[in-house]
């Protein structure tokens, strides 16, 4: 049998039962901030597109869009008969990417430890290494290749050297930041046990950083295939020389075939990298 509601239960916690008006919580402050941020983005975009910034000209686009559309249409019609001429440059491109990745990774492994705080407590040498790497990363690989072609000559060698510099800058940056963000407990324990910094780096830090190091190395291998395809534009070997030749004669159908080959190579490398990562990392 149900008990009748008592006055206390009626006037207690639920105000709706007593007919009292509901207390509406105040609106959260700062609701205008997302709209203000959106307005700032719109203003910056409009200022960037202005003729005084990047020279955006809608009339020029309207006049010349057909030229670009014709070239895009040609890119959708690859010239398959051109394939035999692309095999050797494609193999040279892959060789450049693999050699540059191996050499760059070998150089980047110890440098990554010199650039990280837990594995190099000396702030002066660490700062000098980071400053040198910032300079290396600030220079585009295409500029490296142009200078090296003038020094070494036309061919794959200047392209490989440019890619090695490019790889060292990326791998050291990513791996050293991983070391900086890792747990320092094992390193402190090794230091408390009386081990030298070299022993700590070799026995504790190196096994911990290897997964990140392998990840970044596989990533730059994929980047190298695309980058080495461009370095040939300045005479650094690989597919870039062929790209420059067909572009000069407006053979976009042949250029389309080269782009497809690069795409297939990148997809295969990405697939192999994923398999290696699952097994090693």
UniProtKB/TrEMBL annotation:
Residues 90-273 form the ABC transmembrane type-1 domain. CDD domains: TM_PBP2. Its main location: membrane. Gene3D superfamilies: MetI-like (1.10.3720.10). One of its GO terms (molecular function) is ATP binding. Residues 1-22 are annotated as: Disordered. Pfam families: BPD_transp_1. The keyword Transmembrane applies. GO terms for cellular component: plasma membrane. Keywords: Cell membrane, Membrane, Transmembrane, Transmembrane helix, Transport. The chain crosses the membrane at residues 35-56, 94-116, 142-166, 223-243, 255-276. It is found in: Cell membrane. It is a multi-pass membrane protein. InterPro entries: CPAse_ATP-bd, MetI-like, MetI-like_sf, PhnE/PtxC. It comes from the Bacteria. Belongs to the binding-protein-dependent transport system permease family. NCBIfam families: PhnE. This is Phosphonate ABC transporter, permease protein PhnE. It comes from Sanguibacter keddieii (strain ATCC 51767 / DSM 10542 / NCFB 3025 / ST-74).
């Amino acid at each position: 049998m149900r008990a009748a509601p008592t006055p206390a239960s009626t006037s207690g916690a639920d105000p709706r039962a007593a007919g009292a008006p509901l207390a509406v919580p105040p609106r959260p402050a700062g609701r205008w901030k997302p709209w203000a941020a959106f307005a700032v983005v719109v203003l910056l975009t409009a200022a960037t597109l202005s003729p005084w910034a990047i020279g955006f000209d809608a009339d020029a686009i309207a006049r010349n869009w057909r030229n670009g559309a014709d070239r895009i249409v040609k890119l959708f019609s690859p010239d398959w008969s051109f394939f035999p001429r692309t095999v050797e440059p494609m193999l040279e491109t892959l060789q450049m990417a693999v050699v540059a990745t191996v050499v760059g990774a070998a150089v980047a492994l110890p440098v990554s430890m010199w650039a990280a705080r837990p594995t190099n407590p000396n702030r002066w040498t660490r700062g000098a290494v980071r400053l040198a790497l910032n300079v290396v990363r600030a220079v585009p690989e295409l500029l490296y290749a142009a200078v090296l072609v003038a020094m070494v000559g036309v061919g794959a060698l200047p392209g490989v050297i440019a890619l090695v510099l490019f790889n060292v800058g990326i791998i050291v940056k990513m791996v050293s930041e991983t070391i900086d963000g890792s747990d320092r407990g094992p390193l402190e324990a090794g230091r408390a046990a009386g081990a030298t910094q070299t022993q700590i780096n070799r026995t504790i830090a190196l096994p911990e950083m290897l997964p990140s190091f392998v990840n970044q190395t596989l990533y730059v291998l994929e980047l190298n295939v695309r980058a080495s395809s461009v370095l040939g534009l300045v005479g650094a070997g690989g597919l870039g020389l062929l790209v420059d030749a067909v572009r000069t004669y407006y053979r976009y159908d042949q250029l389309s075939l080269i782009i497809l080959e690069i795409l297939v190579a990148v997809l295969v490398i990405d697939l192999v990298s994923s398999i290696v990562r699952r097994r090693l990392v």
